[in-house]
């Protein structure tokens, strides 16, 4: 529990010193965009700063691998809410090189789970309920293909507004350089 104690001690000082004033913004993103990126620690600040965004410019959705794993899951819901309720007019899907979800060894993850007390019975129950653990925990072999797959999932979603551009990027977590996977404006021109 030392981490929680450190957090609470820091927070008390943060509030007392009014450091929060540096982060005051509105609920709506001023750049009118939502960014889906990975939860990798190297991207905590880099994912927005390398794109030229500051606090309040974009809605940021993060998960393992910047992946939409289900068209009706929380990631897709967050993107739709950003568009329809929070004023986002563009989507940026940004994967990154050297991602931990690239070629993730699911068997190793399952082994660690078992070592930490998850029983075979639990895995059997999950499998019998129709969830394939390999698919559920699995990653991807190609970050560019993963970004493209996410873009296609969004474009084919029945609740998605087809006039919203979706940009696809891959960032290098070592230096912040970007590769364009898809220019959302060009894609929109092709669709119209």
Characterise the protein shown here.
- The protein is of the alpha/beta class and 192 residues long.
- The protein folds into two domains: 2-100 and 141-191, Carbonic anhydrase (Beta-carbonic Anhydrase, Chain A), CATH 3.40.1050.10; 105-138, no CATH class.
- It has eight helices and five strands, in the order αβαβαβααααββα.
- The chain has helices at residues 2-16, 46-49, 74-84, 106-115, 120-128, 133-137, 143-155, 184-191, and strands at residues 33-38, 58-63, 90-96, 166-171, 178-182.
- It starts with a helix and ends with a helix.
- It is an enzyme of class 4 (lyase).
- Belongs to the beta-class carbonic anhydrase family.
Q: What topology does this entry show?
A:
Layout: H1 2-16, E1 33-38, H2 46-49, E2 58-63, H3 74-84, E3 90-96, H4 106-115, H5 120-128, H6 133-137, H7 143-155, E4 166-171, E5 178-182, H8 184-191
Parallel strand pairs: 1-2, 1-3, 3-4
Antiparallel strand pairs: 4-5
Cofactor: Zn(2+)
GO molecular function: carbonate dehydratase activity; zinc ion binding
Pfam family, one: Pro_CA
């Amino acid at each position: 529990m030392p981490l929680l104690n450190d957090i609470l001690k820091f927070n008390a000082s943060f509030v007392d010193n009014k450091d929060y004033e540096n982060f005051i913004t509105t609920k709506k993103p001023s750049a009118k965009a939502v960014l889906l990126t990975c939860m990798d620690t190297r991207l905590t600040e880099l994912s927005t700063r390398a794109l030229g965004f500051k606090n309040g410019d974009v809605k940021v959705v993060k998960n393992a691998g910047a992946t939409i794993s289900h068209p009706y899951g929380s990631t897709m819901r967050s993107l739709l809410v950003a568009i329809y309720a929070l004023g986002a007019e563009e989507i940026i899907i940004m994967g990154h090189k050297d991602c931990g979800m690239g070629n993730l060894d699911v068997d190793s993850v399952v082994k660690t789970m078992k070592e930490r007390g998850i029983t075979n019975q639990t895995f059997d129950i999950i499998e019998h309920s129709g969830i394939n653990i390999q698919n559920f925990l699995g990653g991807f072999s190609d970050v560019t293909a993963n970004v493209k797959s996410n873009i296609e999932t969004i474009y084919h979603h029945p609740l998605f507004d087809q006039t919203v551009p979706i940009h696809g990027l891959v960032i290098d977590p070592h230096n912040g350089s970007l590769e364009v996977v898809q220019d959302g404006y060009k894609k929109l021109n092709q669709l119209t």
